[in-house]
């Protein structure tokens, strides 16, 4: 059967991956309520089409930090992508370059940031940073991203500690990973995935390893990353970052109007309204619900991005109508990648772009820049 939507790719990914890996990709904090709310919040928003508008030509491209992209869709940072397919980060970066979309490489990427940069010659790439207690490790990551030519730094601020996820407990997914019959059985039921992993090697947090000057060791470095985030980071302790990175800086994980205003006052170039795809805290509201108020307050002085629950091209239209500069997507391209490698990732991005194009024609809005509140009920 040909996949017609992101949710079709989700089912394919569920079939192909061991439960442990699929749940890591798919599920959320607590029992998943924040994640569910993110998806439903987009569904609840209803479009209000206008008719008898000339939509022969539709313009979706936008400017972000001095570059022209084909649509307001950013493939957001996701860690451990090598768990789904070998060379996952390079594949995603290349597919984004082909479609003219920004790609954000995670600190927890499983491909070297320098290799990912080389794989897409002149397309702009963004780098996502987790601030680690070990400041030298953090500065080394920033310096490497800068030297490699990444253009935008995305500082994730919603992970002082890792959230509690019920499914990790059900799956006995804790570090160090202990061998168990359940794990063995899970892997044996997914022989193609297992053979692919055996042939290409298990994914590693190679960027952390390189910046620490150590040999890759997934279990050790996943532990380093999750246990030693800098929990003391505050608005007043970010000056060093400005000295280390001269390009645009976007704060990812803002969830309140006050923090959005604070980011603006501190001179950041953008924010991502985000609850980390509902992966951190149970019981938080969907970022899309807070977008309109934040965007109205911020105006044009800073980019306002939003993520969490974007599954269709129509969702991009809804977010733009509420004032977002662009949306980020996390899980959707991963479903495609996990299902069918680069073809799957490519198809998911194309689905988004096709659905966006059709949605704009059907709401009677020939240009992204003309979208406003009047296109929503
Ligand atoms: C993430 N996300 C994330 N964010 C980040 O800043 N750094 C990271 O390393 C990761 N890792 C990560 C792994 C996986 C498997 C997922 C699904 C997500 C969060 C991500 O960037 C984004 O905020 C959400 O995924 C957006 O929600 P949707 O699109 O997945 O609903």
UniProtKB/TrEMBL annotation:
Any Pfam family the entry gives: FMN_dh
Binding site for FMN: 77-79, 106, 128, 130, 156, 252, 274, 307-311, 330-331
One Gene Ontology term from the biological process aspect of the record: aerobic respiration
Domain FMN hydroxy acid dehydrogenase positions: 1-377
Name of the protein in its database record: (S)-mandelate dehydrogenase
Cofactor (UniProt): FMN
One GO cellular component term noted in the UniProt record for this chain: plasma membrane
Molecular function terms from GO: FMN binding; L-lactate dehydrogenase (NAD+) activity
Family under the similarity heading: Belongs to the FMN-dependent alpha-hydroxy acid dehydrogenase family.
Top-level division of the source organism's lineage: Bacteria
UniProt KW Signal keyword: no
PANTHER family: 2-HYDROXYACID OXIDASE 1, S -2-HYDROXY-ACID OXIDASE-RELATED
Keyword Zinc: no
Keyword terms of this UniProt record: Flavoprotein, FMN, Oxidoreductase
Stretches of the chain forming a coiled coil according to its record: none
Signal peptide: none
Active site per the UniProt annotation: 276
């Amino acid at each position: 059967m040909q996949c017609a939507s992101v949710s079709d790719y989700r089912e394919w990914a569920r079939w192909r991956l061991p439960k442990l890996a699929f749940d890591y990709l798919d599920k959320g904090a607590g029992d998943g309520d924040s994640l569910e709310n993110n998806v439903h919040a987009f569904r609840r928003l209803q479009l209000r089409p206008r008719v008898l508008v000339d939509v022969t030509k539709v313009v979706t491209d936008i400017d972000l930090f001095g570059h022209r992209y084909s649509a307001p869709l950013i493939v957001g940072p996701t860690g451990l992508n090598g768990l789904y397919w070998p060379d996952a980060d390079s594949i995603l970066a290349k597919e984004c370059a082909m479609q003219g979309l920004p790609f954000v490489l995670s600190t927890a990427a499983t491909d070297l940031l320098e290799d990912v940069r080389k794989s897409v010659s002149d397309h702009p790439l963004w780098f996502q940073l987790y601030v680690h207690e070990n400041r030298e490790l953090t500065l080394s990551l920033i310096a490497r991203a800068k030297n490699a030519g990444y253009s935008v730094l995305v500082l994730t601020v919603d992970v002082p500690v890792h959230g509690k996820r019920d499914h990790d407990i059900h799956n006995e997914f804790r570090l160090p990973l202990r061998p168990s019959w359940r794990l063995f059985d899970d892997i044996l039921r997914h022989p193609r995935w297992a053979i692919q992993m055996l042939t290409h090697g298990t994914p590693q947090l190679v960027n952390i390893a390189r910046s620490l000057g150590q040999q890759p060791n997934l279990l050790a470095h996943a532990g380093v990353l999750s246990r030693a985030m800098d929990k003391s980071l505050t608005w007043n302790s970010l000056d060093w970052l400005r000295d280390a990175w001269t390009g645009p800086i976007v704060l990812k994980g803002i969830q309140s109007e006050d923090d959005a205003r604070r980011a603006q006052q501190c001179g950041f170039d953008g924010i991502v309204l985000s609850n980390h795809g509902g992966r951190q805290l149970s019981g938080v509201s969907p970022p899309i619900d807070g977008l309109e108020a934040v965007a109205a307050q911020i105006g044009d002085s800073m980019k306002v991005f939003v993520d969490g629950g974007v599954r269709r091209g129509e969702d991009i239209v809804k977010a733009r109508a509420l004032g977002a500069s662009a949306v980020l997507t996390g899980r959707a391209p991963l479903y495609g990648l996990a299902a069918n490698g680069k073809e799957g990732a490519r198809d998911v991005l194309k689905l988004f772009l096709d659905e966006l194009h059709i949605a704009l024609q059907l709401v009677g809005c020939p240009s992204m820049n003309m979208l406003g509140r009047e296109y929503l009920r």
